[in-house]
Structure formats: C-alpha cells, structure tokens
Amino acid sequence: MNAPLKAVPGSGKLEATMRDIGRAARQAARVLALAPAAQKNRALAAMAKAIRASRGKILAANAEDQAEAKSAGATPAFLDRLALDAERIGAMAEGLDVIRKLKDPVGTVLASWRRPNGMRIERIRVPLGVVGVIYESRPNVTVDAGALCLKSGNAAILRGGSESFRSCRAIHAALVEGLLEAGLPVAAIALVPTRDREAVGMMLAGLDGAIDVIVPRGGKDLVGRVQTEARVPVFAHLEGVCHVYVDGKARLAMAKSIVLNAKMRRTGVCGAAETLLVDRAGAAKMLKPLVTMLLDAGCEIRGDDAVQAVDSRVKPASKSDWSTEYLDAILTAGVVDGVDAAIAHIERYGSHHTDAIVTEDKKAAEKFLREVDSAIVLHNASTQFADGGEFGFGAEIGIATGRLHARGPVGVEQLTSFNYRIRGSGQTRP
C-alpha cells in the first residue's frame, strides 16, 4: 500500500479537519438517532460482506504495520495485539453479524408509570450522541467500536493507534462501504486521517462540543492521559490487575485448567491474570502443581517466600509486583489465609477490573462474588472471559471500571442514556 502516514499536514489544517469531522459527526448522530433498526442492520450486514471481500487489502496493510512495529523493537505481546490473520478478520465479520442480530436498544421503554393527575411518564433509551474512541495497536477495535456505536444510534470518531494506521484505514474503508449501501451518512463512522498526536488532544477537548463521551482503549499511559485531560465524560479502565484465587476447597484439575488459561491464553489482553493467590489451607496440595505448570509453560513467576520454596525457578516478588499489570508471560503469586485474606489483598492491590475464585465451597464463592468490588467477578471460570463478545454483546468498545453509568464490558446498551417522555391531557401544576 505504501500509504502516506500523515494525511493531514500542518497543525492549522489538522485543526480545521478535526472540527469538520466533529461537525459532520454531530449531524450524522442526529440521523442515526432516528434511523430505523432495519436500516442500521442493512449497514452492518453490508459491512460484514465488505470486510470479508477486503481480506487481502486488510492483510497487506497489516503486514506493513507489523513490519514497521518489528523494526521499532515492539514486544511479542504488542505484535500479537497488532497482528491480523484470516481467522481474526473472519472473527471481525462474524462480530458484525452478531451485533446486527442484537435487539436494537434505541427506543426501548425502561419503565413507565401513571401519576395521580393522569400524566403517563416513560423512561426511554436514547443514544449518547457522538462517541470518541482513542485506541492503540488493536486494529479490530475499528470494527467493534464502529459497529457498536452504529447499532446504538451513535456516531463514532475513531482515532486508531499510529502503529496500526494502515490496518485501521483498510478496515474503515469497508465500514464506509456498508454505510453507503444502507444510505447512511459516511460521517457516522469517522476515522481520524493522521498519526499526529495533536488530534488526540483536540478530541479530549471535545471538538467544540461535538463529542459527548470518550472511550480510551490501550495502555496505562494513554488511559491516564485521557482521564487527566479529557473535558468530556470518559468510559475506561486504567489497568487490569486481575487475580485468580484458588481456595482450599478447589479441585486441582479445574484450578490448573483455569489458572493456565487465565494467564497464558493471551498474555497481552486486559483480562489476563496477573496475580495468583492460593489458600494456605490447600497450599500443600495445590501450590507446587500450579507453580510447576506455569513455569513449564514459559511463565516467569515472582512469588512470596512460600511460593519461592516450592521451586527454585521462582523469583522473589517486589512490593510493586503485586500491583503490576504485566501484559506478558509474568505472574505474581502468593499464599493467603483464606477467602477473607484474598478479598483484602484484591482490594489493596487490584484495579477493580476482573477477579476469579476457584472453589467447590458455595459459601466461599458467594462471599467472593458479593464482596470483591470489581466490574467482573467470576466463580470457577477464567478471567479471560472479560470480553463483551463472551458476554453475548457481540463485541465491546472497552471495559469500564468506574461506577457511573457503564461498568464492565461496554456494549450497545451501555452506549445509550435515557430521557423521559410524558403524555398528558391538559394538566397544569398548581
């Protein structure tokens, strides 16, 4: 492709371009808010078709992005997040099909009641408006974010990572095909046409009021900057320090399967386990097999004294390790005194993202599920299920760990707000 990597030269031109994108997105949001479900679904079906037909172009663009990232010394985990292949492109198209089949949330009556004076009040789902999405490395986010925003009646302004610039443009071209085929404005899903970091700052300022909410999806530095500088609401999680607690009443075979998957399935995703906690009551049976399994699988383990004692390959854990999101084949491991100590440890060192307990003790499981203050809490399942697709959302625009509006995977319902519609018959207030 050899595409130019800075399509909008000059800060003055960039500012004008970004304002134009914001104004066009705001106009498109008005159209999408009123678009019937069938029209949005036609666009999603056409997008899936175009993604499949564009596989060669997308792979060629991604190959250039990967080559550049490798030459810059990117880590294996980073390259895994960046990489596309036929299977992942197929999964993007399948995700569009799943989102298309979801119930349209716009216009749903959330509640209704009649007042003593005869007025009828309804609470109705409505789109948020314009969603700005700033993301790094993962080009598939272009599809997830664009499709989820479209389905929920929102316009999207997407700023992909500089390292995935070519891939994002190739994918975005397919999404535009779908919009055109369905007769929807192409500004409904806009891709910022430059690698220039100034564009991020302009989005964080809100583009003169055009952007209603920002969703960052990337590393700690990106999310931290967004949370610090954004002048519009943010859906985000700063990091995923995810735990697996193996209780004394866990089954060893299940614990081994869950721990291995939670850590090693994909080490670079935010739902990957970063800390293993083992109940002291079951440590004699559980600890060595779990540690040996992980080490033999190529995972570096940094442990407390009890973990170091079971295998000489274990490195000592520093204080900072307990709150570190590695996004790599590294795990911190320790022994705790039961479920209460595990919960206390997670509260102290965790990031309120995703945490799991493995146990056959229903009482301990319910206590963990009730008392761990995280967006996603699991019993006898891998933390790698922290994904909107695995929740049946089709995809996710990100995972939020805040406590306002959206929490956990952000899907079509979380991309809506509501208003009140009141029907009267001439009532006036005394």
Could you walk me through the main structural features you see in this protein, from its secondary elements to its overall organization?
The protein has about 425 residues and is of the alpha/beta class. It is about 40% helix and about 20% strand. The chain has helices at about 10-35, 35-55, 55-70, 75-80, 85-100, 140-150, 165-180, 200-205, 220-230, 250-265, 285-295, 305-310, 340-350, 360-370; strands at about 110-115, 120-125, 130-135, 155-160, 190, 215, 240-245, 275-280, 300-305, 315, 330-335, 355-360, 375-380, 400, 410, 415-425. The strands form four sheets. It has a seven-stranded parallel beta sheet with strand order 10-9-11-8-7-12-13, with helices on both faces. A four-stranded parallel beta sheet has the order 5-4-3-6, with helices on both faces.
